[in-house]
Amino acid sequence: MFDLIPFNRKSDVFFNNMMKSFNDLFDSVGMAEFGTKSFRADIRETEDAYYIDAELPGFNKEDIRIELKDHDLTIFAKRNDILETKDDDQKVIRRERHYGEFVRRFYLERADAEQVKAKLENGVLQIEIPKRAQDDGTKRIRID
User: Fold this and answer.
1) What's the rounded Cα separation, in Å, for the pair 108 and 49?
2) Can you give the pLDDT at residue 28?
3) Which residues, 6 or more positions from 79, have their beta carbon under 8 angstroms from its beta carbon?
4) Cα–Cα distance between 27 and 37 in angstroms, integer?
5) What is the pLDDT of residues 41-87, one digit of tens each?
6) Average pLDDT value for residue range 98-122
7) How far apart are the C-alpha atoms of 72 and 30, rounded to whole Å?
8) Residue ranges with strand state E in 3-123
9) Would you say the pTM of this structure is higher than 0.85?
10) Residues 6+ apart with CB under 8 A from 123
């Protein structure tokens, strides 16, 4: 709440507090959409497919939804955990709640929606998205 900064001028304290607030805002928002949070992901592309490795530790596969619409692959992960610790008399000593929705969106130009494969292993969601054949807009007409 309050930072103790000895021997600083008032202008330095004001500037430091402003920068701390600014950094806290962007650290908490990340790539947020409407109050949601982001998660770390790696994306690789080969000649035939896209590969996404998303870090989602503590999530079950039931908590994760993957959608591919047009050229956008979207990963949604929702957390709703309650941790409760009681003593011997069943009195609540500590209760913590963790709620949140995490979202990432990736633009994939030639994704084949019918062939996407995904698995969750050791907190990492691995998605393989094969590419459709390149369509240059040219159609060859057969002559009868």
Assistant:
1) 10
2) 45
3) 58, 59, 63, 98, 99, 100, 101, 102
4) 10
5) 999 999 999 999 999 988 889 999 999 998 899 999 998 777 777 77
6) 90
7) 19
8) 41-45, 49-55, 64-69, 72-86, 92-107, 117-121
9) no
10) 55, 56, 57, 58, 59
